[in-house]
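ERR on first pass: missing label on line 2. Operator R.T. fixed the label and resubmitted. Corrected input:
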Amino acid sequence: METRVDCEYIRGLLADFSEDNLLGRAARRARDHVAACEACADELKTFEATADLVREKGLREPPVGLWNAVYNRITDPARAPSVARPAAGLRLRLRIGAAIAALSLVILFGLSYVRRPQPPSVANAVAAEYVEGHAVGSRDGLFADRFSLTSVAALAEAEQRENGRL
Amino acid sequence: MSGGRVVEYVDVDLVRRTKTGDVEAFEQLFNRYQKRVYNIVYGMIGNENDAAELAQDVFVRVFDSIATLRAEEAFFTWVRTVAINVCRDHVRRRVPFRVESLDEKMSYDGEDIIREIADPAVGPERLSEQKETERAVHRAIDSLSGEHRTVVVLHHLEGMDVQDIAKALGCPTGTVKSRLARAREELRRKLAGYVES
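pass 2 clean. output:
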């Protein structure tokens, strides 16, 4: 037999029962009670009717002019898109372009490195000194050839020393 | 063919056209979903001015990022996620304030007093019964706390299930169910005069 105490207890659970929040013994007790007690069954119906009423009447009308505001923003040429991302096809083309540009840079860098004038070696510096000396000496004419031979010998010696062969 | 499928096909076509920059196609998408978006935003924010501003933000963000949408048939599910995220960002940025329930006790000179929102409308006798019920429902929803209002709107108005709401809001399903139960209890009490038993 249902008692007033049962009804008070169950009514405290009806909100959770209507949302299917009760588990195990509490759920069974609420279900059995509502099946047997007309007053509590009516009470449960008011929870369901409230949800129906909210669904039926709860929606509001959006403000007039909402589209105009959105339209003005999306068509404003001065605006930066909030989350701008190009389309998939465009993204692929951009990636290919970036890869080609990177490859071109690598090739250009490599070429410029190969063509770059090498810094003068020790041998070159010695050669420059001797050639200059030869030019000065050849003005007199008498020791020009001898000076030239000495210069070439000194050059070869310096080159070999630099290469670690001596 | 079900109505849902037809909607999806129409959406897919409009989404594809919008991706090419077709603003008229986007306007059609806007017209189809503006009410739902506005109600989600209003439900989560509870303020008309902010809701209008944020609803704009949602649609602008949707337009800007529509190229990233792969599942075109699930357009509105995606829009709804955008709307929820925009609102959550807004709430996070907003200076926190305490939401008081109209049912909370307030006292003056040691005596409890009842607090009510002034209704600027003319008396119910001059309004249609339908309109008056609608206003009562809106007032009741407005009086809920932000957390309760959000789950009520997403579940009862938007038709989302508890798991999806929990995922969208980043909280356990038990929390969503509990909020729904407390909210329904409060709504039932406030709308007792309008509910047919």
